[in-house]
């Protein structure tokens, strides 16, 4: 029945010259373009088309690390110019993909909010000149700061949009869109954040966003403390994390990526042990140095995942956590950047963690034993030796 309605409105929209499709799409697109003259709009449309045809540059850990310390002005300015171009290309690709979605999806208020954000960000990038002096670079960094900030809490918005529009898109198509979109988002944020951090260093032993001696055990403990606080608020109990091996291992890595993965995995493990009544058995982490980086195994005795569910867990929006609309959407009401402060609910934790682990060529695999517990193996690729700058 639902698909019948969908087919029908699709038909009306696509083939009726004055049908709802044309009018609705115009209304949707015009909301992002209200302050533009016709000429500016046309110019921007040409730019989107042109930039969407350019290839997106892959972000590699070795390239991020390839800046002599302290960064020379010439290298910084050259990077600024590349960053401006690369971000415009990436935003244009995303706009193109959003426009390709069925109009009933893009009409959803949350999705159209995302579209407007990308449109306006592209517009800002195209009206920004590459920095030619250190002073201009300082201003460019403010533009990048704003870009990162304005996109920081978009995942719950996107999730809400796709949840509401789920009847208009198949699970396969929405998974394909979200996977590409969210992986691209990781790259765009990293490119912007890296230039910001090359200009205003984060601290000792950092080259931009890369910490040359990033210690997985330290990040795990920080994540465990954060997730412990959430558990305390939610369940009134705090499961423990024990690191049984590799506490002193260090690799060059982007700590915020590591933190994302560990926080999501510990949220899942802590929730599982609490709900299974086994929170007195610590969650165990084992860290091993490999030729390609590190392998971290997170083992919990939270009862595991039932076999029929196993193949679903990497699906976007697959969650067994159910509280009204899902706790995850509540992050919509938290301050920007404060997303992810609920124990579960969106069903994005595992697929996004895998995307983060794979970003530099790593892996994330789940091995579960129903009735017992779950092991998650995370390989973070960094075939370089940790060193102090
Ligand atoms: N360690 C685990 N033990 C038991 N079940 C798990 C574990 N990890 C994941 N799961 C199952 O897989 C589902 C999907 O996990 P995922 O992290 O993607 O989403 P979520 O935790 O429900 O929501 P969120 O987006 O907040 O992470 C969970 O709802 C849970 O049923
Ligand atoms: Mg989760």
From TrEMBL:
Transmembrane segments: none annotated. Its EC number is 2.7.11.-. SMART domains: HATPase_c. Residues 255-384 form the Histidine kinase domain. Keywords: ATP-binding, Kinase, Mitochondrion, Nucleotide-binding, Phosphoprotein, Transferase, Transit peptide. PROSITE patterns: HIS_KIN. The keyword Repeat does not apply. One of its GO terms (cellular component) is mitochondrial matrix. The keyword rRNA processing does not apply. InterPro entries: AK/P_DHK_N_sf (IPR036784), BCDHK/PDK_N (IPR018955), BCKD/PDK (IPR039028), HATPase_C_sf (IPR036890), HATPase_dom (IPR003594), His_kinase_dom (IPR005467), Sig_transdc_His_kin-like_C (IPR004358). It holds the Pfam family BCDHK_Adom3. Belongs to the PDK/BCKDK protein kinase family. This is Protein-serine/threonine kinase. It comes from Trichomonascus ciferrii.
